[in-house]
Specification:
The chain is α/β, with parallel strands linked by helices and 277 residues long. 45% of the residues lie in helices and 12% in strands. It contains 11 helices and 9 strands. The protein has a 9-stranded parallel β-sheet. Helix 1 packs across helix 11 and helix 8 packs across helix 9. It is globular. Bound molecules: zinc ion (ZN). Zinc ion binds next to strand 7.
C-alpha cells in the first residue's frame, strides 16, 4: 500500500488551476505549503521574460515541472506551426522546464478528414522531435477528450498518442512521451492496457482533476478531485503499477475555483491530493 500521508513530492500545480494568483503569488503560496513544483504557461514567460520567471522559481525553491504548451500542428501553414513550436521549445529551455505539453490541434481548417489531421500531427511532430533533442526538452503528447476534436486535439486516446511515439521514436528516447490526464482519458475502455503499454519511459506526466455531472462548460467546468465521477484512485493504481515516478499535476480549468481565494484553492488541491488521488 502506498503511503499517501503528507508526501507532497510528486505534486505539481498547473498555474491555470489558480489563475486568480500571479505566478509570483502562486510560487510563494506553493513554497509556504510545501508544494515543490509548478507548471507555468507561455504567457507568463511572454509577459515577464524568461530570466524573471527563472528567478521567481529559484527564489522560492519551487521546481518547473512542465511547460504549457506547444502543438496546434494541424494548421494548414506547416512552417508557421513549426516555427511557433520551436519558439515555445526555446522558451521552455530558457526557463528550465523539464518537458513541454503538446496539444495536437483539432480538425484542420482546410479539410474535414480527421485522418489527414492526425497524419499531419505525426509528420510535424517528427520534425519537431529533432528540435526537442536539440533543446533537451521532451515533448509530451497530451490526448484530449474527443469533445475537443473539433478545435483543440485530433489525438483523443493514449493509444493514438503512443502510436505516434512508436512511429517517431522507436528507440524510446526520453524526448517524446505522453501525458495521461484523467479528465481526458477516464472513459477509455483501453486505458489500463495503454498505461501499461506506455511504461514509465513514455508516460512522463499524470494530470488530475475530476469530471463533474453535469458538466456545464466544455472548457472551464472541470472539477476538483473527489467532486466528480472519475475513479482517480483506480487510474492512479495502474500508473503506480508501471513504476511511474513523474509529477502528478493538478490541472483544473474552472470558473468556480477562479472565483475563490487562491489560498483556499491551493489548500483544497493539497487536501484532495492527499485523500483521493
Ligand atoms: Zn492536462
Amino acid at each position: 500500500m502506498r503511503n499517501l500521508a503528507n508526501n507532497l513530492q510528486p505534486l505539481a500545480i498547473n498555474a491555470a488551476t489558480i489563475k486568480q494568483w500571479s505566478l509570483a503569488q502562486l510560487l510563494d503560496g506553493c513554497a509556504r505549503r510545501g508544494v515543490t513544483a509548478v507548471t507555468p504557461w507561455r504567457h507568463h514567460v511572454q509577459e515577464l521574460g524568461a530570466a524573471k520567471v527563472r528567478r521567481l522559481f529559484a527564489d522560492t525553491g519551487v521546481r518547473i515541472s512542465g511547460y504549457c504548451r506547444g502543438g496546434f500542428l494541424t494548421n494548414p501553414d506547416a512552417q508557421a506551426a513549426h516555427d511557433e513550436n520551436v519558439e515555445a521549445l526555446k522558451e521552455a529551455a530558457d526557463v528550465g522546464a523539464t518537458s513541454m505539453a503538446i496539444v495536437a490541434g483539432g480538425v484542420a481548417s482546410d479539410t474535414k478528414d480527421l485522418s489527414v489531421a492526425r497524419q499531419r500531427v505525426t509528420e510535424r511532430l517528427n520534425k519537431l522531435f529533432e528540435q526537442a533533442k536539440t533543446y533537451k526538452v521532451p515533448l509530451l503528447i497530451e490526448p484530449l477528450h474527443p469533445m475537443y476534436a473539433g478545435d483543440r486535439s485530433c489525438v483523443n486516446t493514449l493509444s493514438q498518442a503512443l502510436d505516434m511515439c512508436d512511429a517517431i521514436d522507436p528507440e524510446r528516447s526520453k524526448y517524446l512521451g505522453v501525458i495521461c490526464d484523467v479528465y481526458h482519458c477516464w472513459w477509455d475502455p483501453y486505458l489500463k492496457a495503454q498505461i501499461y503499454r506506455a511504461g514509465k519511459d513514455r508516460l512522463q506526466a499524470f494530470h488530475v482533476c475530476d469530471w463533474l455531472v453535469p458538466t456545464k462548460d466544455m472548457l472551464n467546468d472541470r472539477g476538483m478531485m473527489g467532486d466528480g465521477v472519475i475513479d482517480i484512485r483506480g487510474i492512479r493504481h495502474w500508473v503506480d503499477e508501471i513504476g511511474f515516478d513523474g509529477i502528478i499535476e493538478v490541472e483544473i480549468f474552472s470558473e468556480r475555483l477562479t472565483a475563490l481565494p487562491g489560498e483556499d484553492v491551493l489548500a483544497l488541491c493539497i487536501e484532495r491530493y492527499q485523500t483521493v488521488v
